[in-house]
Amino acid sequence: MKTYLITGGAGFIGSNFVKFLLKTHIDIRIINIDKLTYAGNLESLKEIEDYPNYQFVQGDICDDELITKIFNENDIDYVVNFAAESHVDRSIETPMIFVETNVLGTVNLLNKAKGAWEVKNGFKPCKKFIQISTDEVYGSLGTTGYFTENSPLDPHSPYASSKAAADLMVKAYYDTYKMPVNITRCSNNYGPYQFPEKLIPLMIVRALNKHALPIYGDGQNVRDWLYVEDHCKAIETVIRNGEPGEVYNIGGNNEKTNNDIVQTILNYIHENIDQTVAENLITYVEDRKGHDRRYAIDARKIKDTLGWSPDTTFEEGIIQTIQWYIENQGWIRQVQGGSHE
Ligand code: NAD
């Protein structure tokens, strides 16, 4: 029986991962610690909250005493660190909280895991710390090329810089102490339970309400889109088979401009839900400060060495996602605190 300490498991990717693990494994225990910021919501975990092998703790990964207590009272095998402030726009307004949670919180977890796992000649066997990072740590690409795990770190936003700083601390725990770690760097995720401030859910929710669809700059910024369930499978593969100390890029092979994304959502809603939802909702707004032009992931390492590849095409994933938001308006209202947007 393996015990997972999952942080940030009430957020978008974390809640999908907790549910994925509990539904695919019976021989595990999960402790999910989440501060429940605006981005975390217990509503996203309703279907598994009564599982006997699942425990939720509301708390902060920066809380020294709480994390110590969790490690003292439980034999934790894996730490999977999803907890983060994750929205680039918010990081431009308030960088400090990004440093506190993303950097100091990660170091607190690393310290406590090291304290619990270190033995005389190294570390207890079969323990691992998995840091969930982002392709944004690599900076921006031109129209060609891909980020590999060896691309230099060149983050631009306070969010990306805080994630890069955390990655370097995780790397330091491997290089210095040989603590077993992996870092995963994924592209933009989409799917159910994403807080409607990020591009895809924001545009779906606004289009359904026939509100203006604001696109930054000229809308030609390119992101690679990864369906969240494929990401969950990739993380599980890395936990099981990832070589300690290694970084794994995880991508969806789906490069799209923001214009493509908004057009796809509009077309689907226009054709299937409400014909009065139309192009004239699109409005171009002043570009985000320091907006990276293109991210694209070379995920050959995880494919070739660990045998993972994404199962969901963008065409399937985006329809499932739009349908999920249409069918779960109660969840949207709940996470937005009763407002419509
Ligand atoms: P999210 O914002 O939806 O969720 C973050 C969760 O962390 C929330 O539940 C929040 O309550 C919790 N949290 C915040 N501060 C905390 C703290 N101090 N202590 C404990 N919990 C805290 O984020 P997400 O989209 O699910 O992203 C999860 C991870 O994946 C993040 O580390 C993010 O950097 C990374 N990532 C996300 C994407 C993406 O497209 N969503 C892409 C690349 C990497």
Give a quick rundown of the structure.
The protein has 341 residues and is α/β, with parallel strands linked by helices. 41% of the residues lie in helices and 18% in strands. The chain has a domain at 2-187 and 227-251 and 290-312: NAD(P)-binding Rossmann-like Domain (Rossmann fold, 3-Layer(aba) Sandwich), CATH 3.40.50.
| Low-pLDDT ranges | none
Under CATH at level 1, the class of the domain at 2-187 and 227-251 and 290-312 stands as Alpha Beta
Terminal CA distance: 42 Å
**Shape label:** globular
| Average of pLDDT | 96
Give, in spatial order, the strands making up the sheet with the most strands. 3-2-1-4-7-8-12
Category from helices, strands and their pairing: alpha/beta
Q: What ions, cofactors and ligands are bound?
A: nicotinamide-adenine-dinucleotide
Radius of gyration from the alpha-carbon trace, in angstroms: 20 Å
CATH second-level architecture of the domain at 2-187 and 227-251 and 290-312: 3-Layer(aba) Sandwich
Q: What letter string, H or E per element, gives the SSE order? A: EHEEHEHHEEEHEEHEEHEEHEHHH
Write the CATH fold name of the domain at 2-187 and 227-251 and 290-312.
Rossmann fold
The fourth-level CATH homologous superfamily of the domain at 2-187 and 227-251 and 290-312 is NAD(P)-binding Rossmann-like Domain
User: What portion of residues belong to β-strands?
Assistant: 15-25%
What composes the largest sheet? 7 strands, parallel
Number of strands: 14
Helix share bin: 40-55%
What is the multimeric organization of the chains shown?
Answer: single chain
